[in-house]
Amino acid sequence: MAAFHFNITTGAGTPIYRQIGDQVRLGVATGALAPGDPLPSVRALADRLVINANTVAKAYAELVRDGVVESQQGLGFFVASKKRQVYSRAERLRRLHQALEAFVHEAVFLDFTADEIRESVDEKLADLELQPKPAGEKA
Amino acid sequence: MAAFHFNITTGAGTPIYRQIGDQVRLGVATGALAPGDPLPSVRALADRLVINANTVAKAYAELVRDGVVESQQGLGFFVASKKRQVYSRAERLRRLHQALEAFVHEAVFLDFTADEIRESVDEKLADLELQPKPAGEKA
Amino acid sequence: MAAFHFNITTGAGTPIYRQIGDQVRLGVATGALAPGDPLPSVRALADRLVINANTVAKAYAELVRDGVVESQQGLGFFVASKKRQVYSRAERLRRLHQALEAFVHEAVFLDFTADEIRESVDEKLADLELQPKPAGEKA
Amino acid sequence: MAAFHFNITTGAGTPIYRQIGDQVRLGVATGALAPGDPLPSVRALADRLVINANTVAKAYAELVRDGVVESQQGLGFFVASKKRQVYSRAERLRRLHQALEAFVHEAVFLDFTADEIRESVDEKLADLELQPKPAGEKA
DNA sequence: GTGGTCTAGACCACG
DNA sequence: GTGGTCTAGACCACG
To answer: Which chain B residues have a beta carbon less than 8 Å from that of C80?
Structure first.
């Protein structure tokens, strides 16, 4: 992997550590990050994003906990070869629907129509270049 | 309106004051709460939910700011007769995108694909029977 | 911006949290506070003014809601780079009329004539050198 | 005095007792209420306005304190023959400017121009039918 | 009775 | 370090 870019938006609702983790997950999902690829070092990424090193460390720790990346003592962090599925499908669906509920309620409260909501979701997903997964992968 | 029930989950991620606000908004949206209906008094609701009165007051204050309910000096809070359009279109879009960001981040975190996300949104919108706005009304 | 001073009058009619908010708004309006300038931390300001931290937090939260300042997670509050137009025209008019009502009631209570009231408003506006908006800017 | 009408707006910022007091003061100022004219009884006005009798009593008490009306034991309240000036001119100006300051700050914050502010004040004063005082009266 | 403001202090998330 | 939420309780204005 050559050029994998992180970008974070501070001040938004989403915590920085979560944004970092999500971008790694997304990279793995889209294939931008392949198994074995190294992640930037904690310090390097913290410097590049001008954020606290603890924040990067927290993001990486969560990725390790979830089996997305693996830590090689003294070498750094690498994309895991095969990802463990941490949450059960039921649990994942439960959390998805909870998040969805919050989003749709806010949108309805803001007086947006179903079409406007759908459109905004489509745009956002296109932005993320979230592609359907190749074949028989996780999820 | 006869029996409007509040129930809160403590220990969950969502703050109590927000849970209260959301339930009132939802009640208004579904018609369970009609314009002019009184809300429980701050102290009464605090007692009933076994939480602090300040927490209820904070929830109610936010509802007033958003034009959902109105305060009648010395009498308490009542569902607003006609919901005002408090926010500018730019602000409403900003809030929509912020809510969307949080939702999509959670979905990505949970490893759902773009198709799965879109599908879940469609289902949810269908559930709500959210129709295009008839005229100058809110959906 | 070097030295921005807050001073509050306790025992007056105006709540402390509002006095703080007003002083920030005024500072922003006059340019004493420039976009990006940090506000004192909640705890620091509370200590300096010898008031409770919650009171400062309440003031800051209102400023965030109104788009005057922005919160940077873990870093504190900063003057917003460009003031958003948060409220709809209807809402802004509603607030103007409410403020006007309070003012005129006080003036009538104090037995001032219509001419005296008008004159005092003219003087005040002249003082502020409030000019018609140049372009898409705020006055 | 035959038909003197009170109307109060509940839910606004101004307390009801203040609205009642202001309308009496205004009536006296415009001549709608002449010295010796009776005010509605506390109970009658409370019934008519569908408010608490304590609220009317509080308004009347303040008017008596300020020398606008006089209480005749067992008969009720009457417009005072000659009004005492309660506050010094300096004090009245101080309070006027304080109220004005709050109003103008709010208006400026809401992005209204000087012209818009002046216009809104003129309209409001016209609504109140606040006329210049006849001759060498108070104020 | 109603809500509004403020305090002192705890505990948590994020950086 | 930063802010966010919540509690328990006081005191006040308004009705």
So the answer is: none
Determine how many CB atoms are found less than 10 A away from the CB of residue D98. Answer: 15
User: DSSP string covering chain B, please?
Assistant: ---------TTSSS-HHHHHHHHHHHHHHHTSS-TTPBPPPHHHHHHHHTS-HHHHHHHHHHHHHTTSEEEETTTEEEE-SS----B-HHHHHHHHHHHHHHHHHHHHHTT--HHHHHHHHHHHHHHTT-PPP-SSS--
The Cα–Cα gap between A26 and A32 comes to 8
Chains A and C touch (3+ CB pairs under 8 A): yes
Q: What is the pLDDT of residues A16-61, one digit of tens each?
A: 999 899 889 888 877 888 899 999 999 999 988 888 888 999 999 9
Considering the entire predicted model, what is its pTM?
0.85
Q: What is residue D78's three-state secondary structure?
A: strand
Gap from B25 CA to chain D (nearest CA, Å): 20
Asked if the Cβ–Cβ distance from D15 to B72 is below 8 Å, we say no
Q: In whole angstroms, what is the distance from residue A22 CA to residue C75 CA?
A: 22
One-letter amino acid at A100 equals: L
Is residue C92 predicted with pLDDT exceeding 70? yes
Query: Per-residue DSSP letters for D86-117?
Result: -S-HHHHHHHHHHHHHHHHHHHHHTT--HHHH
Rounded Cα–Cα distance for residues B63 and A4 (Å): 43
Q: Give the integer Cα–Cα distance in Å for A87 and D85.
A: 77
Residue among D10, D55, D56 with most chain B CBs within 10 A, to mutate: D10
Greatest Cα pair distance in chain A: 53
Structure token digits, residue B126: 């269908």
* B18-32, B113-127, C124-138, D56-70: range with lowest mean pLDDT: C124-138
Give the up-direction half-sphere exposure of residue D112: CA atoms within 13 A in the CB hemisphere: 28
